[in-house]
């Protein structure tokens, strides 16, 4: 087996044998088919990758895996170039929302048959599966997910007499208003946290953009999307988050760590930053899924994570499919989820993370997960992001419908190929 790390400006090959010198690699050169796999930096620990490679090669003695770890910086251009050249690796990890842009090149293998027949695609998390499906063909196979939850300060909840997390929006607003007292903020919600807004829009039945007879159009000005923005405005007012900045400016974990913020919306991993800044909060943090409009289910959330794709021109199609099947199957999904605190790719595997409070809350929300619009041009929208100034305008008193129309028109322009 081989595990390689590719650096941003140069490629440094670090094989497993480098740990004990440059001896021969077991299995290499004995006639086994070498399957090259690109995984992204920090998506999986070195120990997980080693376990997987060893386990896979033991079960598939005619296959040698050559795993190369890639940097996120510049990966889009690198994958696009590889697909065009015909000299791509056999399996590639990509961001779930990136699948449409690679599928547009015509260079991906359609795995619809395997998905329906062998892999139980009906149980996949929608936020991973939907962006991997382009024009009815499944090019991206869900690997792992992560999404936002509400991180809360147990002491502040207790002081306010709140004994359990809210189960719906009405309770959430009422609890947050109670928590927003004196020097404490009920919630720290920056004005341009557009991923959180997206969830509220989806809960109302709206969309950020929709396809109409082959053309994509921004739809933030629909009645449903406007209701989502109205709820965001109500919630954001129950704290002192900046109206003209996103959650990174300043880093919301640093604000929360001061001990005067009752809630923030983030992935559970943000707790590490909170605890680093204020170790006294280590045992004071709790988690719950973002509440939905009713008790029936949690609110919709944007699902981040990764899918696996196979280049259409791979010389090792059968072997590449076997690798994808293994990585996305129950055994290695359970291992990856418990090792990395991820949400597994199927709702039926959510029980595997029940012992991890933050991840368990994330998994409950992931069942209502969504992804950004499935347009190959969506990256251009995120690069400019007209949604952010729209949100600030509404929070500062602009007419919501007019501001939404301006943002929607810009999204439409950016989505036009």
From TrEMBL:
<feature type="signal peptide">
    <location>
        <begin position="1"/>
        <end position="20"/>
    </location>
</feature>
<comment type="similarity">
    <text>Belongs to the bacterial solute-binding protein 1 family.</text>
</comment>
<keyword id="KW-0813">Transport</keyword>
<keyword id="KW-0732">Signal</keyword>
<keyword id="KW-0449">Lipoprotein</keyword>
<dbReference type="InterPro" id="IPR006059">
    <property type="entry name" value="SBP"/>
</dbReference>
<dbReference type="Pfam" id="PF01547">
    <property type="entry name" value="SBP_bac_1"/>
</dbReference>
<protein>
    <submittedName>
        <fullName>Lipoprotein</fullName>
    </submittedName>
</protein>
């Amino acid at each position: 087996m081989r595990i390689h790390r590719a650096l941003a400006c140069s490629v440094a090959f670090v094989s497993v044998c480098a740990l004990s010198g440059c001896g021969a690699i077991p299995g290499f050169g004995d006639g086994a088919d070498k399957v090259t796999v690109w995984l992204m930096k920090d998506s999986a620990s070195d120990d997980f990758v080693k376990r997987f490679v060893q386990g896979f090669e033991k079960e598939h003695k005619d296959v040698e895996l050559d795993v190369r770890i890639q940097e996120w910086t510049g990966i889009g251009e690198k994958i696009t170039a590889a697909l065009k050249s015909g000299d791509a690796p056999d399996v590639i990890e990509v961001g779930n929302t990136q699948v449409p842009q690679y599928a547009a090149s015509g260079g991906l293998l359609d795995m619809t048959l395997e998905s329906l027949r062998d892999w139980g695609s009906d149980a996949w998390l929608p936020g991973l599966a939907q962006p991997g499906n382009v024009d009815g063909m499944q090019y991206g196979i869900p690997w792992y997910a992560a999404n936002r939850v509400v991180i809360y300060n147990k002491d502040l909840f207790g002081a306010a007499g709140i004994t359990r997390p809210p189960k719906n929006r009405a309770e959430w607003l009422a609890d947050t208003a109670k928590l927003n007292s004196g020097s404490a903020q009920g919630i720290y919600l920056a004005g341009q946290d557009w991923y959180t807004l997206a969830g509220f829009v989806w809960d109302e039945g709206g969309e950020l953009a929709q396809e109409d007879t082959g053309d994509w159009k921004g739809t933030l000005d629909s009645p449903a999307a406007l209701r989502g923005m109205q709820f965001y405005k109500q919630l954001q007012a129950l704290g002192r988050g900046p109206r003209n900045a996103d959650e990174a400016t300043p880093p919301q974990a640093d604000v929360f760590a001061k001990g005067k913020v009752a809630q923030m919306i983030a992935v559970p991993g943000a707790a590490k930053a909170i605890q680093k800044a204020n170790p006294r909060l280590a045992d004071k943090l709790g988690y719950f899924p973002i509440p939905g409009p009713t008790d029936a289910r949690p609110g919709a959330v944007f699902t981040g994570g990764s899918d696996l794709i196979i280049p259409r021109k791979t010389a090792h199609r059968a072997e590449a499919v076997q690798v994808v099947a293994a990585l996305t199957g129950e055994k290695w999904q359970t291992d990856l989820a418990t090792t990395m605190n991820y949400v597994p790719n199927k709702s039926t595997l959510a029980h595997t993370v029940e012992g991890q409070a933050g991840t368990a809350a994330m998994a409950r929300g992931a069942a209502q997960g969504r992804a950004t619009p499935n347009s190959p041009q969506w990256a251009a929208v995120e690069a400019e992001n007209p949604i952010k100034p729209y949100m600030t305008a509404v929070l500062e008193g602009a007419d919501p419908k007019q501001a939404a129309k301006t943002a929607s028109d810009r999204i439409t322009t950016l989505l036009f190929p």
